[in-house]
Amino acid sequence: MIDESFHIPVLTEEVIDLLLVKKSGTFLDVTSGFGGHSAAILEELNGGSLIATDQDPEAIRFLKSKFKTEKRISIHQARFSELHKLFSANDFDGILADIGISSYQLDTAERGFSFMKDGPLDMRMNQNIGEDASSWLNNASEQEISNIIWKYGEEKKAKRIAKAIVEARKSFKIRTTKELAEIILEETPRRFNDKKHPATKTFQAIRIFINNELEELDLLLDFASKHLKIGGRTCIISFHSLEDRMVKRFFRDHSRRDPKLSKLPNLADDSSFKLVTKAIKPSENEMNINPRSRSATLRVIERIK
Ligand SMILES: C[S@@+](CC[C@H](N)C(=O)[O-])C[C@H]1O[C@@H](n2cnc3c(N)ncnc32)[C@H](O)[C@@H]1O
What we know:
By secondary structure, the chain is of the alpha/beta class. Helix content is 40%, strand content 14%. It has a seven-stranded mixed sheet, sandwiched between helices. Helix 3 (57-66) links the parallel strand 2 and strand 3. Helix 11 packs parallel to helix 12. The longest helix is centred in the last third of the chain and has 14 residues, at 213-226.
């Protein structure tokens, strides 16, 4: 049984304010998760409707039960990379993505995302597809492991950690989150002034790799840029700098004149989008109530023609 208190949606007021410009419109929440933002959208709609998607089958089961009497929502299991296929004929007044993992996924030991809870080293957001983290970690080369930890975790000690993983797996198969966390802790012990657990970046990197998160985000941005109505908005909340950098660049490049043409005189700005606001961070108050919101950044773009 999923407990709803697991997940407190972030930046909800700001999202509602910036996304729901037309309350009679059609909206798409592509990371509906535990339905926090979806519920807030439904509450504000006036004649509009919502399509809610997520790739996690457990989230979909939960959403179908949470919204079982709600006629204005339709719920589908889908990855970002499947949106083009599913909604090729739809355009939206607003698209919302609150990317990353949910608190439920992080806090459920069996999902294998957390070094704080011992569980099978899985890390797949959809456990029905793809290779889990344990299988990858026990078969990948040291160089590959090091590259992933460096690229997706921006972990300076990536080489040392990869070497320690490969050394450890000579004596046992790494199957649990605790085993992996202990290998990392032994190689890079926690110092008294460390704010973060030494395994934080490695766990993040493996999770991003296993779920193909950056490629998925790229496809989502492409989908959103092609499926907004004029006046429609896309709101994206991201939780780490790799994702936020991608969103920032994509929004910037789509909301300014083609740099190759910018030197030509008297040329009208031909961009189809405008940035609605600067990046938005949660208020101090929200961060105090929900410390996990601390690393969230919201960016918003609008289609203007
Ligand atoms: C931070 S949670 C969203 C929580 C949600 N906004 C709420 O209020 O309950 C992120 C969700 O995005 C989903 N997700 C992440 N990457 C995805 C992808 N590539 N395709 C579809 N869903 C994805 C995860 O399964 C997770 O449920």
